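Q: Can I see a sequence and its folded structure?
A: Here is a first one.
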Amino acid sequence: MAAVSDRLPAFPWDKLEPYKKTAAAHPDGIVDLSVGTPVDPVPELIRQALIDAADSPGYPTVWGTAALRDAITGWLRGRLGASAAEHRNVLPVVGSKELVAWLPTQLGLGAGDQVAYPRLAYPTYEVGARLCGAEPVVYDDPTADLDPARVKLLWLNSPSNPTGKVLAKDELVRIVAWAREHGILLFSDECYLELGWEAEPVSVLHDDVCGGSYEGIVAVHSLSKRSNLAGYRAAFVAGDAEVLRELLEIRKHGGMMTPAPVQAATVAALGDDRHVAEQRERYAARRAALRAALEAHGFRVEHSEASLYLWVTRDEPCWDTVAHLADLGILVAPGDFYGEAGARFVRVAFTATDERVEAAVKRLG
């Protein structure tokens, strides 16, 4: 039996281990800015909703409760400007990474099909293509760089991981129209949409982008960043009802169910804006402190107008930068994790605690 893992690239984070050991040897301990994992507490109202739903002995449904679908569609209409959103336009998933990795397989893609994603991108887009035997292809501008006869799945990512770049509304309108013209299914990863700093991210589901129709487009959203729920695996997709109906049928057979207590917690999270604003304030302060310290240390920041990362360079190979910062006890992600175009950049997360961010600022001073 051929090993499926043979199709996949080496797991990138394993390469960072020696630098992590160097950083951990710092007398004041490591400041880990490599992985964008939340560190702040889960808001109390969300924890209470989880507790209240803890007595859930039966199987949850893959489509989720009516209350969950109400919460998602209400949020889509109120936050994203997707005025036509109905229950048939939503589907909860077990964290967005699972969805990204297995989507091409669940869509029935395979040899001869292309899955396209940005030249600098979250590595799981490539993994998803390779798992099903499709061909991964990268682009700078999808309308100019891709063969529309071969691309079956087009990934957008705005705000971008790793760069924080935001696609403007007119750019989204242009790409959506092109994808529809050529019958290409468009999935837009919008997991950082609530974290715009110098730009206001817009969803492909916004009425002004899609014309009030979700034909051929699906947006991916996660509560990991906005609500500190990475440990809950709470996410959902929204958009084309026919595409989601097909995914629902497949996922029912596969038992891909969001646990009932997590569904209840998601309802609470989507119904409260206060905790999102409070978390944004925390991240904004950490971002400002780290940006100033990095620039004073000789780094140049590019893009980074949104998301939880600063995309920075000293115009040297990224692994030299990783080693330099590790010697200061600071661990960052090398840019080539996200594609060859990132070979002279590093990604700096501002998801550490205030105390660890302050430590990093001092070491960079």
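Q: Show me another, different protein.
A: A second, unrelated one:
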Amino acid sequence: MFATSPRNLTDRRIRAAVIGTGGIARGAHLPALRALRDEIEIVAAFDIDEEAVRAFCADGGVPRPYTDLDRMLDEQRPDLVTICTPPVFHREQTVAALRSGAWVWCEKPPCPSLAEFDAIEAAERQAAERQAAEASEEGAGGGGPYASIVFQHRFGSGARQVRSLIADRAMGRPLVAHCQTTWYRDTAYYSVPWRGNWAGEGGGPAMGHGIHQMDLLLELLGPWTEVRAMAGRLVHDVETEDVSTALVRFESGALATVVNSVLSPDEVSRIRIDCERATVELTHLYGYTNDDWRITPAPDVDAEELARWRDLGEDVPSSHLAQLRSLVADLRAGRRPRASGADGRTSLELITALYKSAFTDTTVRAGEIGPGDPFHTALHGGAPGWAPPSPVPVTEIPV
């Protein structure tokens, strides 16, 4: 159905389409796309709610509303689609976009399970192979299409500087870390049908809220090796947890505590990393600037060295726009973007291990959850007390 022949992007704007027209599309994706209007032309939007998509297009100056996703992809041939729908739809819509030849930028979480992520990676490989073959026949170049995830906290100037300092061991080895996403959500928040249940949301605050800070922690500290976790339902009448805690060991030897909560009236997002020669701390809520980072030196650090550490460069806030700029550059160059493929999978792997550890009272090691493990297919893993009351039989998702 779809035409997927290579697309020449050297002398024209990128054609973008939006899938899902709710709050995150209006509040984050549309403003970022419009801010890059010299690079991007928004050609269409899709939603199953005709009234909603027509209102979105009218308010945002988007020319063509659709309620049929395949038709939109076929008629408009977008180069890039942004996916702003509930997690349960992410795999299906990402695969459809990839098969049409479009690159994907999907809201977190990328999908509700590692099995679904495997299916996305398989579709990505198939689409890339098909497009590469067609490009060879036509003498064209370029890679992709690729599916990337919205992990905007990686892309601020503060994260870039701190990541470099830790990777270079400028502040010594990282030793102790704390990753905190303590937010507050009331009963009304969970009145939305797809929230608080495994089928719609995939998980609780570890999956839907804390994933951003955990992704940034992994961005700064690198690979993890094992996790030990606990989870509870302390307030809300939901299938998933409303609070979790975890201990994580990293390949570097660093140890971290992770707390994810929707029970905390004093809301904060925080990462603290104690290295041998300095403590780095980031405190914010939904996004940071350079002013939200603090570096406290050990007594033996001289002022000149400390000044170099604290030089975060031009202030680039963490934002959808910052990530989109990077993604557009990758799309034009035909190279794999950050937060895609194996790089995008890391946070979902840690979250899956967190749930397995919490629900089975075991230590989970990196790489142990694969096909055949019940947690590979669903984050509740069929665990007593956590699986849905009337679970649908779990089967692996074909890739």
